Every structure is written in C-alpha cells, then in structure tokens.
What we know:
The chain is built from one helix and two strands, in the order ββα.
Amino acid sequence: MNKFVIIETSEVSTVDFNQVLEDSADTLRYSFDGTKTFVNYKGDQPSFLEGKLEHTNAEILEILKGDEWAFSTASD
C-alpha cells in the first residue's frame, strides 16, 4: 500500500529519490502557491521523513481536492 507525506518545498532537497516513487523534484506535484509538495512510497517511512504525518491513498485524494491543490472549473 502506498503512503504519502506532504512536505514543505524547502525540504525537497532532503528527499532521497531512491526511497520514494517519484523520480526527481521535477516530477513532484506542487501546491498552487508553491510552498508544499508530497512524496509517496511503499513500506517503511524513509528516514528523511521521520516523524512526518503519513496519509493513505484515500486521505491524500481528499486533501488534493482542497483549495490549495485542486484545479477549479468555470462552474465552481
């Protein structure tokens, strides 16, 4: 099961891309204001994320529907 952790953009330089499913900082999805992103992984939480809140797939999908992340449409 994939796990997700939201991090501050300033923390991207600490990400070990060998331990997460993303390839690089260029493949991360960023919040609209550019201050946050997230990584996902399987298994144990990588040490560089120690102590950070993990989210399930269902939880991260709900978070991404929020104003910080979601794309609005003309009908919104």
